[in-house]
Structure formats: structure tokens, C-alpha cells
Amino acid sequence: MEGDETEGRRQKLQAMRDAGVNPYPNDFRPEHTTREVKTDLGEADAAALEAFEGVFCLAGRIVSRRDFGKASFLHLQDRSGRLQVYVKRNIVGDEAFAAFKQWDLGDFLGVRGRPFLTKTGELTIEASEVHLLGKALRPLPEKWHGLTDVEARYRQRYLDTVTSEEVRETFRKRSRIIQAIREFFISRDYFEAETPMMQAVAGGAAARPFVTHHNALDIDLYLRIAPELYLKRLLVGGFDRVFELSRVFRNEGVSTRHNPEFTLVEFYQAYATYRDMMDLTEELFVELADSIVGSRTMSWAEHALDLTPPWRRVSIPEHVAEKMGLDIDAVRGLDYELLRKAGDEVGGPLRQDYRAKYGEAAAGYLLMDLFETIAEEELIQPTFVEEYPVAVSPLARRNQESPNFVDRFELFIGAKEMANAFSELNDPVDQRQRLEAQLQHRAAGDDEAHAMDEDFLRALEHGMPPAAGEGIGIDRLVMMLTDSASIRDVILFPHMRPDKP
RNA sequence: GAGCCGUUAGCUCAGCCGGUUAGAGCAUCUGCCUUUUAAGCAGAGGGUCCCGCGUUCGAUCCGCGGACGGCUCACCA
Q1: pTM, to two decimals
Q2: CA of residue A224 to C1' of nucleotide B70, angstroms
Q3: Does strand B come within 7 Å of the CB of A137?
């Protein structure tokens, strides 16, 4: 049992307390990081270190140790990295050395000492003082292999990160990506908003929401599936450029690409179109690739990606017409029978009865499914997919020439949807009709159809400027920029079933 | 929700065709050791083989059911 080792550590802890020693003090103040030592002296030779008069003061976890009778080597790990420390009995003194002998891997240690170079040439701190700063009762994972059990890595992420510099680096990159996105929008005069996470109507996307209850008001509230409708209210309210970067919640399954809560940046710009959003997206992704990866080409899983703009653009009706050998005008005309025949040819889920579920909007949904079935696997390099049917885009502006379609794109990279953008629908009459159509879909059994939102419609009726908006899934973006195969590798604490009691 | 695969010591993993007391490395404990770095040498302890039921003289191993996880699919971003 793990109890063996933990029990031994508990006994050491009790022995310290019995001897009047505090095993959890908080009076040691490190003055340097291990990286600072290496940065200052990494190039110095033995003679230079001999002449060096400074003393370093460090704190961190003991992550390895090699004991001798009257001396010991260990590695100390802090937030910046790890550094070797040499503890010698005749320097720290008999009493301190005897105490030090009782300390374990995983314990927190404070060290003061001067640098030197070992025989093997490793920069090392020769301790003049050692202090126990915190006793660990449970051991760290095995030093060589670390923690490889994926379940344990996710459930006890702290063990994963304390063991793996690579994992720590992935999450540092995530933090830098989020910071860079903020700076990207703020530098373009966007206003950062915080809108409600709990909403009376869960709108702005097609997804099932989580439900919660407000006791004092005695109403059900929904965790938001998107901030979209509130950000549009801010367009009405005079914020011409607005973004929000935070969590949304969707009551769907989990997979390597899905977590029930995920991070989204949504941004809206008045007097812009979805085409402007394409340019902005290319700029953002290139900037992130340059700063995070250091290159516009990168590998993601089995793919070699090239983010150099301009990115490919693919029209849904054109692609379907071309691949299926159909007449483009008939496809744009949303000829249901024609698409039905094509769907039967492709087979699979496309055989279902779209008319029963979607009524007059059936052809639009069918076209989308057809496109996804025949094209999604090809969408490896960055690709803007455009010309979406009105029926699947209840919040997007109609195309001026082609009213069955909207001015919208989705960005695909590595066959994954990375972003969704459109010129926003600011015609309140059209918006009301679209939401009413969604209500019919809901009544016919589509429980992800958009809900009616009278409060939002009232805001639109007060006047929203022409605008374009976009949402980018941050987790998938981080996956791409860190070459991660699973969304759980870029979310610190991914959702899992509760562990056995 | 479906299919496939997995679960053995604290960690990383072996374990043959169903057969005595389930093994190794690291970690832990004891002893020696003042330039090691997966330190070394000598010794020791540590197991609900995920859980339950069944088959069998006998089950870590075979069958059925369940839990949890991974992957793929479905839903979705």
C-alpha cells in the first residue's frame, strides 16, 4: 500500500512537531529563481565561479536526490526550472545535516549558498543553509517515466505538471495565447466585456444548455452556450467594437475535441463584414503562430500545416455541385429533390427524412450534411468555408444577391472547426421571422434549435449598426499551436466522471 | 448513446496453455559511502491482480454482468 511510505512520512512529521520544529513555516523568502542562477552564471567556468562572491537564495521542491554518508546531491525545482544543490555536512553543520537526512523527495526546501561547478561540469549551489519549507506526505510519481496513466494525469493534474516540464510548457503557452488574443483586440480598440454566464434564455448557438435554479427569484437559469446575444446588445448600446474571452457551457458529449465547458473568444465589429473578419482571423492566427510556435508552418497530429495567408476559400454549394456533378444553380436554388438524390447516393445518415424534421428548411440542412460528409476530411490546411444556407444560420445576414444563403464562414484547420463568423443580421423583422422558424424546428423535435428571445429582439428594434462578428474556439487553437491530440491535454482540469468514493 | 481496447506494488511495467509462495526497475526502510546525476554496493518490507457472479479439483488468466478510463463513431465547437 501507499500507506507504507505515507505512514513513514507522517511519523517524520510527528517527530518534527515533537521536537518543536514547524514542518510548515512561511518565513523563508527566496531571492532568486533557478533560472536566474543559470542565466547569470551558465557561461562561467570553474575559475570564474571560484572568484564569484555572491550568494543565492532559492526555494523549491526536492525532485531528486543522491545521498552519500556525509553529503548529498539533489535537484531543486521551482517555477522556472531545476538546479542542482550540494549539501555537505561539514558546511551546513551536524545538526542541520541530520535534519536534512530526514527530508524526502517532494518536500519543499529553502537553500542559501554559493555556486560552483562539479567535476562533470554541472552548475550547482553549495548549500550553506537548508530549511524545510513544507513536508509532503505522499510521494511524487516515479522520476524516470513520470506519470503516464492518462486517467491519473487528468484527475491529478498537479502530479502531471509537477513531473513534466513539457506539460507545464503547454499550459504556459495557453496562458500566453490568451494574453496575446486580449492584446490583439485591445490594440485594435475593442472593448472587453463581461456578460452574463447565467441567462434566462440560452441563445447564440445551436446546443443544449445546462440548467440551474435561482432560489430567491425562483426561476430556472441556463449556463450560457454563447455570449453572442449580449455582445450584440452592446453593439446596440454604442460599443462599436467589443469582445469577450471566457467560458461557455454546452450539455453535450465529451471527446478528444469536446469538453462540456470550453473557452471562446467572440468579437463584434460595427461597419465590417464577414470578409473583414477573414482578414482579421488570418492576422490573429499568423501573429499567434509567429509568437508561440515561431513559425507559420507547424505539425498537428499527422498533419503538416501552413498558415501563410491568404487561406483557401470554399463555397458550400459550389463544392457540392462540383463533387456530386450537380447543376450549381439548382444547388443554390436549394432543389430538395436534387439534393435528396445526391444524399441517397452518399448514404449513411443522409438517408433520414429532413422534411419531417425541418419542413421548408429541409434542403438547407440537407445541403450542410451533404457538404460535411463529402468535404470535412479535406479541410486540413486553413480553409474558409462560406455560403451557408439561411436555415442553419438564424443570426446571420442574408446575402444580397442570393437570399437563400447568408454572409458567413467557418474556418477549418486539421479537419476541425476553429471559428464561425458572419455579417450580423440587424434587420429586426427578418430576425423575428428566423427565430420563429427555429421555434417550429424545436416543436418538430430539434432540441438544439434556437430559442425565442424577446428581450434581444427588443434591443434589435432599437437599432443595431451593421456589423460582423466571430467566435474562435480557444481550446482547439491551443491544441493546434501546441501540437496536442486531445482537448484534455490543453484544459488543466478536464471533466470526468467522479472518482470512486 | 454504440463499437473496440485497457485496468497487476506508491509510480513504470512483465506475468507462458488455467496449476505450489504473482515478479522487475524506480520509490520506501536498514547498513556503508564527501563531486553524484536513472549514483553505487549489501539487505528488507510492500499486492482486494478494478468489483461481483459463474465455470473448474483449482481463476490475475476462461465466461457473464458492472465500474472507471482510452480510442473511434454519433452529437457538437
Answers
A1: 0.93
A2: 30
A3: no
